[in-house]
Amino acid sequence: MAYIQKKEAGTDEEIWYGYELDTEILDLVGNRHVYETNCDFDLDLCTFTQATTDDIDWTRRAGNTPSTDTGPENDHTIGTAAGFYIFTEASTIFNKVAALESELILASSGRLCADFWYHMWGADIGTLNIYAKTGTTLGQVLWTQSGALSRNWFEAQIDFIPTADFKFVFEGVTGASFKSDIALDDIYITTGACRDPICSCDFDLDLCTFTQATTDDIDWTRRAGNTPSTDTGPENDHTIGTAAGFYIFTEAST
């Protein structure tokens, strides 16, 4: 978000206006480039483009993918069939590469954080690679993940200091069967270091630094798998998406 002060027409009042940024701007303090782009794919590919030297394109889609037993059920942003994401369609296209490129990011942007959500579920999931491409050279692998995970969206962050102007490349490699759809959503790239959360707890061991209040009616209950009541509550936790992971819930029985 950028804020610009300007005078309201017909008055002497000066008002700050906020603007969402989807591309590169020049920082007026310090004379350096500040980069920011954010894409949830709900309208289009934003500032990203399909590579021309790969095998297949990333496909923009809402709801589940066409193939059974692979891909997400919904997007990450809003978690319903109304939201969009991009994925690699692996049906009859095995062991092929789909590459999505960011716009050119200047080295003068300094340290950058790339934050994104990915989905890799299916019996023959391939590999997701993130590169820093300079010129026509794909460059170093900044991040990679191979093989099937649970049917959840996972977040990843890349802290990167460029030494030359470059593009981020999100490369999905399909596996040996149609059950290898890889999906991406909510890519956010901005100048500055990636920030660790102030507090984080997956409840797999305990309540971490959280405590039960003493002035309420009931306690939160830590549990794995589904809740005791039918037709309510989650089937599994969010962290790993299986009955081995824990979460907390409010037990409403009686």
Question: What does this molecule look like?
Answer:
The protein has 254 residues and is mainly beta. The chain has 2 domains: 24-191, Jelly Rolls; 197-254, no CATH class. Helices cover 0% and strands 37% of the residues. The chain is built from no helices and 16 strands. It has strands at 2-7, 14-19, 24-27, 32-39, 49-50, 59-62, 84-87, 97-101, 112-120, 127-133, 141-146, 154-160, 167-173, 182-191, 221-224, 246-249. The strands form 4 sheets. Strands 3, 4, 6, 7, 9, 12 and 14 form a 7-stranded antiparallel beta sheet that branches. It has a 5-stranded antiparallel beta sheet with strand order 5-8-13-10-11, with no helix packed on it. A hairpin with a 4-residue loop joins β3 (24-27) and β4. One of its GO terms (cellular component) is membrane.
Task: Describe the secondary structure blueprint for this structure.
Blueprint: E1 2-7, E2 14-19, E3 24-27, E4 32-39, E5 49-50, E6 59-62, E7 84-87, E8 97-101, E9 112-120, E10 127-133, E11 141-146, E12 154-160, E13 167-173, E14 182-191, E15 221-224, E16 246-249
Antiparallel strand pairs: 1-2, 3-4, 4-14, 5-8, 6-7, 7-14, 8-13, 9-12, 9-14, 10-11, 10-13, 15-16
Organism: Strongylocentrotus purpuratus (Purple sea urchin)
Domain MAM: 37-196, 199-254
Protein name: MAM domain-containing protein
The helix tally amounts to 0
Number of domains: 2
Query: Given the C-alpha coordinates, what overall shape results?
Result: globular
Average predicted confidence as pLDDT: 86
Provide the CATH top-level class of the largest domain. Answer: Mainly Beta
Q: Helix content range of the residues, please?
A: under 10%
Report the sheet-strand fraction. Answer: 35-45%
Number-wise, the strands total 16
The radius of gyration over CA amounts to: 22 Å
* Main beta-sheet strand count, sense and barrel state: 7 strands, antiparallel
**How do the SSEs run, as a string of H and E?**
EEEEEEEEEEEEEEEE
